[in-house]
Amino acid sequence: MILKIELDYPKEDIRECLKMISGALEQQKETKWIPIAERLPKKYDDVLVCDFDGSDLRGIYVAFIDNNNIWRFSCCGDAIENVVSWVPLPEPYKTGPDFIGLYKESED
Predict the structure, then answer these.
(1) HSE (CB half, 13 Å, CA atoms) of 35?
(2) Is 71 helix (H, G, I), strand (E, B) or coil?
């Protein structure tokens, strides 16, 4: 199965899409993880956290810190025990070109 990308969109829409991708890549380069020993986020602010078990990364989750300085999963409120660093959530997606139908599968 071969994936074909059809660019039947106006050049201006494609340029805008490339600008968004470029901006996201720049934001990613500028994002620095903050060790919890250095500073904590505001209480109940959702952030991304790194959870380590010894020297192994267990996962990256959306979480918050409560009034008792306990890290909790934002989805269910369960405690997370081994958070070592955090970073603010990125800016939300802003509407742009409609990409439905941009990718089409081919049997070629």
Answers:
(1) 2
(2) strand
The whole-number mean pLDDT for each consecutive block of 10 residues of the chain, a chain of 108 residues, reads 56 69 62 89 94 80 94 92 90 63 51
Amino acid at 61: Y
Tell me the pTM: 0.59
User: ∠ CA 38-39-44 to the nearest 5 degrees?
Assistant: 155
Q: Where are the domains of the chain?
A: 32-91
Q: Which of 26, 5, 28, 9 is nearest to 17 (CA)?
A: 9
The dihedral sign for the CA sequence 67, 68, 69, 72: negative
Q: Which residue has the tokens 């494609």?
A: 14
